[in-house]
């Protein structure tokens, strides 16, 4: 009924199957059984998002371990991380859930921490930080789009009116239209005033055209001359002060005649010269600002972009739509 | 109405047969020879067709997904797509369909002819329940062999996909990248899921085929009718069960 | 299982006492859908006798036999074997009965040896050496030693019947049932089978029920005969009574005249 060859084949077949299941298990669950080395640290988050068992743990982009288990612990989600034994994690290092691509796949990124801090030991808990995920970023962009649209709508309304009350441009237009006569009159008046001035009429006209005024001016000048005499005495006084300075008395005296102060001043002036030289050569921020063409080009580009952005904001609709779609998607 | 009665009758007798078979489980060690024989028929001889078919399923899957995913630059996810669809769905379902065609039909034919030529009656008069020596070893064998078939189908399918992904001009993804993608989105849970499904399908196919074979009435012409019925019922059952098992395992 | 009504016999294999059993058919009716196959049939089979149930094809003989082994359930009335309901599953555990099927019903996937050994193995009657001994003895009784390793498909019709009888014999039955044991056999082989049935009964004193339309068999080895026609028992008596019967149905059944001038199939048409 049963021959040994058949039994052997079935046995072989079964062993093959079990071996294959084992291999698959080893491969897909990250080979826990053979590589169960390293130590564990716990990372608590408000949400693990897309993180799952077997995802990588990286420090500065280098793989140092993997997520061994995810679990709920009270009011937070915990990821148990297995770190390879030769890697030390500093106590002040921070773990974040990092998104590796647009579609799923997260890993836990741990920063280097400071060198002085102690190492985390097995079972210790690492500090965590929340990074905005794509979802929240998308929704923020969406909201931003809506705000911009609103602002532009207001601006547009203010400029061109919303149908009920007139906008600024309309108001200016109205102002000009309504006051055309007044304006014409005003310019007419101005012309007659300058005409009068030319003809020597009025105070200003007389000032320009009246010979009598010349005499007045002469007397004024003589008065000024008197003033100049007074100034002479003032200069004499000043002379006296300068003498004092020469003798090294007073603050300025010290400044001028004290050797050290003079040296300081000289150094300052030298510094100033180097600074100005540098400026001329385009060194330093300010120098670049003054001498670098690229900066100007950049600025110009920014201006152009801003310009385009402003143009583009007319089509703020699609931007908001993207935001909304992104919200819906994630 | 008559069809409904027949369907209900079929369900009832199948469950009855299941209970009867389970009640004979303690005699299983004594049936080692029959068990090995059935393992051989269900597992070993079904392997080649399972391997060939799953290889091409994997290949076609890679080809089709490569063709359509190229359009939005997601080619590097071919491995994930092929891996997951084979492990979770196509592997178990293909195995079960092949089992229905190859083993289910054979079981139905054998038991139907035993019934028609009164061998089943002879067993009954000898006080040897057919459920014990004809059904139980088959059920045990399919339970042991189905995961083996399914895992081989998975692996062969994955490799089929990998080969196509590498040698197709417009895909050209190297096996390491393919398997990295496959591993990235897959856990052993997914494979286990597929194995459980295969187990359920295989068990259902064998049980239903046994029941239909044993309930054959009439002359030799009915043997052919029973085989057809066993295969059709198995196929329907696989797809219906597929939905519910998938839902239950999600 | 000692029963005072049963005469005891020494079993050829175990040499233990196995009592022969009686069979009682009480008001048995059976219908398949609207078709009434058996209509209120009643008779008794005594322990250790050969009862031959005769009747034309389609008269319900085989259906009646299936009721005795519990393969069919009665629509009305009941069948008891040694006082136990034949339809109950426990009856077959308490009373060993063997049915020799019309077509033999040998297990085609097994050799003759394994066909015979199956019952002994499944019921763990003996260890493999004991089973071998029993099987070979049964084959020897029926002169089948040479066929032990053959498959049923390699056997002739007469050998198949003998294998079927041998398979029934290894069960050490208390009740042997034969369904058309001599049909499809040549007259000499039919006579041989009849001789075997009678010999087994004489040697082992087993209650035997034979369903047949072979009148040679009935008239030579039967202790009592029943004739079933259209689902009803039309005759019940010893083989001598059968020979003497004046009932036209019985006479016509046992000695049908082949009348070409007025053929029966034409009478049926009118």
Number of strands of chain A: 7
Low-confidence stretches of chain A: 312-325
Helical segment count of chain A: 11
Radius of gyration of CA atoms of chain A, rounded to a whole number: 43 Å
Low-confidence stretches of chain B: none
The number of distinct β-strands of chain B equals: 0
Strand content of chain A: 5-15%
Count helical runs of chain B.
9
Sketch the topology of chain A as an H/E string, one letter per element. HEEEEEEEHHHHHHHHHH
Integer count of domains of chain B: 1
Q: Helical residue percent of chain A?
A: 55-70%
Please give a structural write-up:
The complex is a heterotrimer of chains A (330), B (250) and C (270). Chain A has helices at 4-28, 134-160, 168-178, 180-198, 202-209, 212-246, 250-257, 259-281, 284-291, 293-312, 316-329; strands at residues 39-45, 56-59, 62-73, 76-83, 94-99, 106-110, 125-128. By secondary structure, chain A is α/β, with parallel strands linked by helices. With 250 residues, chain B is mostly helical. Helix content of chain B is 82%, strand content 0%. In chain B, helix 3 packs antiparallel against helix 4, helix 4 (78-116) packs parallel to helix 8 (188-214) and helix 4 (78-116) packs antiparallel against helix 9 (221-249). Chain C has 270 residues and is α/β, with parallel strands linked by helices. Chain C has helices at residues 61-68, 89-94, 112-122, 128-141, 157-170, 187-204, 215-221, 239-244, 248-254, 264-269, and strands spanning 23-32, 35-45, 50-54, 76-81, 84-85, 97-100, 175-179, 207-211, 224-229, 232-238. In chain C, strand 1 (23-32) and strand 2 (35-45) form a beta hairpin. The A-B interface holds A 1-2, 6-7, 9-10, 13-14, 16-18, 20-21, 24-25, 27-29, 52-54, 103-105 and B 32-34, 36-37, 39-40, 43-44, 47, 74, 77, 144-145, 147-149, 151-152, 154-155, 183-188, 190-191, 195.
Keywords:
heterotrimer; A: 330 residues; alpha/beta; 7-stranded mixed β-barrel; 11 helices; C: 270 residues; Rossmann fold; 6-stranded mixed sheet; 4-stranded antiparallel sheet; 23% strand; globular; disordered N terminus
